[in-house]
Amino acid sequence: KGKNGSVKKLEDFGTRLVDMVRVMINQEQIKTQVRKSVRSRRNRWNEGYYNLSVTPYGYEKYKVGKGKKLKEKKGEGDVIRQMFNMFSKGKTVIEIQSYLLSKGIKSPRGNHEWTVDTIRHHLRNTLYIGETFYTDKKSGIIHKGSCVPIVEKRIWSIVDDRFLQYKNETQ
């Protein structure tokens, strides 16, 4: 019996049952499509494709097949190398900031002055030695990829050591 003591119609029950089965099938199809999409994104990342929307300073995207990869953007790549070279030879972030301002080099956002935090961010970024990372938001899993390096690993290591030394001295 249905609500208010009325007799349930068999066809109403059958229709609802079919609708429930359709919904369950649709949900499974959606889950499968999401898994395939995530797997495809991860595989493309591992093959060196760059899936993120913002192109990092020093790079530009170029089309390869159905995706895009990173290559050095002339001019900006030279700025990145100069920043790393200066810092590896003992210059401070403030001195690098002054240098960039004196040369009229605009920041990644097009501002006339680079912030200290922006310079630090670039000097700490492993992207510039060709190592890229993508974090899956749902699982939290970090996927590694690669791109064309702008800075030699030797120089990046010197810069990284300076940051670690500073961190240890301030604790």
Tell me about this structure.
- Helices cover about 50% and strands about 15% of the residues.
- The protein contains five helices and four strands, in the order H-E-E-H-H-H-E-E-H.
- The chain has helices at about 10-45, 75-90, 95-100, 115-125, 155-170, and strands spanning about 60-65, 65-70, 130-135, 140-145.
- Helix 2 (about 75-90) packs across helix 5.
- The radius of gyration is 26 Å and the shape is elongated.
List the helices and strands and how they pair.
Blueprint: H1 10-46, E1 59-64, E2 67-72, H2 76-88, H3 93-102, H4 116-124, E3 131-135, E4 142-146, H5 153-169
Antiparallel strand pairs: 1-2, 3-4
Instruction: Find the structural class using helix and strand composition.
Output: alpha+beta
Low-pLDDT parts are none
- Main pleated-sheet profile: 2 strands, antiparallel
Strand portion:
5-15%
Question: What is the average of the pLDDT values?
Answer: 87
The neighbouring-strand order within the major sheet is 1-2
Enumerate how many helices there are, as a single number. Answer: 5
**Strand/helix succession:** HEEHHHEEH
Distance between the termini: 74 Å
Radius of gyration in whole Å, from Cα? 26 Å
Count of strand segments? 4
Please estimate the helix content. Answer: 40-55%
Query: Can you tell me the overall shape?
Result: elongated
